[in-house]
Amino acid sequence: AARRRPSASSLGFTEVRHGLDEVHEVSDGHTCEPLIAWGDPVVAGAAPLDVRRPDPEAQSTQFGHGNDFVAFLPHRGQPHSSTRGLLAVNHEHSVGKLMWAEPGAVPPLVRARAELTAQGLSVVEVTRVGGSWSTVHGSRFGRRITGETPMRLSGPAAGHARLATSADRSGGLVLGTFGNCSGGTTPWGTVLSGEENIHEHFGGAVPTAGPEADNHRRMGMGATVYDWAAWIPRFDMEREPNEPNRFGWVVEVDPHDPDALPVKRTALGRFKHEAAATVVDASGRLVVYLGDDERGQCLYRYVSDGVVDLEQRSRNGELLDRGVLSVARFESDGSLRWLPLVFGEGPLIERNGFRSQADVLIECRRAAELLGGTPLDRPEDVEANPVTGLVYAAMTNNTLRGKHRHQPVDAANPRPENRHGHVVELIPPGEPGARHHAASAFRWELFLLGGDPGGDVGARAHPDTTVDGWLSCPDNLTFDSRGRLWIATDGMGKLGLGDGLYGCDTAGEGRALTRQFFRAPRGAEVCGPCFTPDDRTLFLAVQHPGNEGGSTFAQPSTRWPDFSPDLPPRPAVMVAERLDGGPIG
Ligand code: FEO
Ligand code: CA
Ligand code: CA
Ligand code: CA
Fold first, then answer.
1. Single pTM value for the model
2. Which PANTHER family does the record match to this protein (predicted)?
């Protein structure tokens, strides 16, 4: 009965019910089908998927694993197209135990390289013909960027001795990107990809002395997930103590130029990058909001020195090399200050071990702590509302809140042992359409507090939220063109529920009234929600389906989306549309 209650929301779709299933569910009156999944062809002439054994050469031509961020980029001559363009997709991780039947049938180096090449990014051309979307086979834009792809470092830390290794004494040329979580797009049509949990990829002992000891400890080094260090020397911190410093950056990729070298933009700082939300400030400068997704880490903002000039497209990349990175300090009176991470200012001086801006950028976490940045409940995705200019940041959860001595309960992190997370609204000065995103002071408010408002302590939702409409563990965010916020979750499995995608208004009577649009199959979180410019197509990524405790290739908790006894579950990017062809929402 609750689901039929007249609602204050502007979102009129029928809600999906809470639950947990081997299949996905989408709102009645919509279709939602896979567009591309792990192992599908990306590069022209790609090898067909063979799940028997790992093959890094084949993987380097195929769609990667662990799809997260999704960007739809219309072609440059048709900037408003909602039926043809490029999809750029991040691949965050490769779950070997769910990928191959016989991972031990090849030498461990080969298997490690297949895991390495399953991460990074994919670029595919997509088109909607005859009422359905497909990838364009053999497109010249089809490209894999992997953990082995050469890329350039730029900005203040590029070329610094702490980025030099035995293979690259210049400190300027890196092999690969991995742990690619969420991201963003720039006004000039490139993609920003966040390197997040890079500690998982390195092995060997963490140095206990020297300049990298504290740095590597703060980045969580030592909690290794992949065994690559045993087979690929650069992943062994004892042999190459500087290699980890070449990861944990934001990578800029130009999907429209398949030959362009990706660029790691060091001016945006080094931490566990979740996302990179860009907006053009009222002054014309580029502003990028950046989350560092770990319990007790901070929210950052980058402001370019120069202004965005879309007539000089190729020069805009330099905006990401020269600018000021700041960390957010949330005050209990509802104000927020942005504290600049500039070498030589405040505590960022030689006495504290910083000898240059490169040191500040490589050790952002330490710099932010010294400045007094607010430790948050895992800042994940950030997104600016295209209509109001207000900015939303998802704090996914933090069970250490109130227990860890550096993470006291405070105004911006109001719940001890925060299991359900919350969403914070940042309010730059100015009016809609002319917000001062570069201002040094903002206001902020709590937008919603996750959990079941009917039972969970401290949950705060709109009173009309239905039994199916509340959410927990907000992670990925996007906006439709009308300025409605869509929130994807990561962590409802621990409640015995599937993760989902929820829509809500951010203003008016339906403010923060979340409604469930999509529910993922078991084991999966929902990532990369992204609308076409006309809102008629929604792309979303189903990440790590069937990956629950004890899941293996032979016994996953679901074989979504193929349901073939010969195939494991495959992470996939989905296309959702309304059956009547109207805008979603
Ligand atoms: Fe990759 Fe923070 O989620
Ligand atoms: Ca995330
Ligand atoms: Ca987003
Ligand atoms: Ca997540």
1. 0.98
2. DUF839 DOMAIN-CONTAINING PROTEIN, SLR8030 PROTEIN
